[in-house]
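Subject: sequence -> structure tokens, single chain

Hey, anyone have a minute? Need the predicted structure for the following. Not urgent.
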Amino acid sequence: MSEPRKPLHPVISYNHILSELSVNREDPCEVIRELISNSYDAKASQIQIYPLLQEKGFIFFDNGTGLSETKETNGITPYRAFFSIGKSTKVEGESIGYKCQGSKLCFASKKITIITRCSDEPSWRYISIDNPQKNINESFDISSHCDYRPWDTLSQLFLRPKNPTKNILKELNQDFFTNHFNYQGTMIIIEGLEVQDFSDFYSSNEYGKNEWSYLKNYIRFNTRHGDMRILRPSYTGFPQRREVSFRETIGYNDQCQLFLWSMIRYNKYGLHEIKPGYPYLKKPDATEKIKTPAELSSLYSGKFSGRYCSTFLHDEITYCITLAIDGNKRALEKYPELGRKGYSKSGIKLVDQRGTFISSEGVKICPYNKIFEHSSLEKYSILADKKAQSHYILIINGSFSVVTNRNSLTDDSKQILKDNSFLEHIKNFLDEAQDEAQGKVPVFRELIERLNKENEETRLAAYRQKLDKLKKGIQYRTRFKVNNIEQLKDKWIVGPKEGEEHWVGALYTMFSHLVTVDSPYAKLWVRPITFRGFGIDSIALPLEENTFKYTAYKGLEYKYNFSEADEYNHPFTVTNFIVCWDMPIPKEGEQIKDAYEYFGYVSLTEELDDIGYEIVEIQSQTGKPHYENIKVISLYKLLKKTFDCQFITPPQPK
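Reply:
Had a minute. Here:
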């Protein structure tokens, strides 16, 4: 009797997963995005961010509920969840951060320190961990320590600080902790963050500069604080009546203050407030020279503006959608801090903030201009064009699920965006926007009409340009006359060039009707009776045949060139002739294969001497034989053998 089988379990490496998650970012400031989302979820009314350029880190503080080590939600405490993988106190559908993976970006650092306090606790608690990415594992003790003097804990982290850090420590003194951080909140101190060119991204000192820092713009454009649902109608020009419906969606919060530490005057540092809400441009005032798209001589250099927004219900989920139209010239002028061609500015490019985007719980996740590829939105397909995108931003917000690094959507979310009923909502919104954007001025409708017109003109111009180039280039191409055919002896015929496989077929077809059956090369000329642009190019009959017998048909494929190293894109089993304009003659026995798991070998026959070769011994990968050979013919060489041809190649332009 065999022994009872012991259960076998997989081994999961916490340390390996943590290492992967902690560096799983596309932007150096993503850790700030995650911490801001956590602060909002913790019901914070104030956030303060202090970049530490000397230490390549930052201090992040919020006055939210704190990281409790005793009160569980979803079977785990907030404090323990901060260090855990796949366990969270957040509820899916009510928060973008329900997977508890974003906070792990903090661990790609040399040191992390957490000081926290909950409203029911008598003191602060803290923990400080060196090299968290390597040291934290399943057996690591993350228990926090009571701390009655956290200001000392903070200052002792920086033994020899330079002046910028000293200024921050003066701000975060005992008075700060006892007056601003006495009730509840969390402070996270990161040192040695794994970010190359750290100061380029985290420096917030803008004094004397005509641009906002990368970090400040990142917060405005890409975090929960830059919630696209915060409309500010009196400032942005969005319809006032829509503000109420946006406010009623899950997670809406326009009351959290966020401050970024920076130099506000020469050698004077302080906290600068960043207003909540996505940075839609201010509506035009009386001083701006605004024209509608129809009134402009050049759409690309004109200024125009329009706003429309709405909500819709799909599968019992409320979606918000905003359309902010600002002509390219206006966007260039009103977003001076954003980078554009030739100028880095803050480092965040204007072109990356234009077009169509998907947002989850207010946070802009990723561009999604491909939505206009769907047939139901064909009327608006021009909006996917790069030039069109420079004139607008369209943001679709809902409870979309995102992948681990939150820079793209899950497959489930992508399926929502392909759903016909969902797309019908988008179409209805765009239809309404054509009538209602900018009050009584139909800016959106005029923009669509103008874009379509200019696109059509561009396409026509490009088509004409190609045609002109073709016409002008004809005189430099190889040409020939056929002296022994009365109708052709005084007429030049232009030889094919790369991409003109159909012309190869047309020439072969024409001359196959001029060859007599007594020609020594008659077997190499078959008479095409069909011509098509897909599949095998032609079905043909031998010259002596005048029948429609199935067994008499031959399959022809036309190519400009063909090499034995190329994979033939049709089955060998349906091909009898491969007619090229010209091609190199391979060596005897070289192997040739098709894209359908058949292959054969080159045979240099007497019949095709200096004209081409045959592919013989054709068989499948499994050894199934094909009993017919394929003739590979150079039409250029066959013409010279069959007819009295005079070929000329004119001098080429310098």
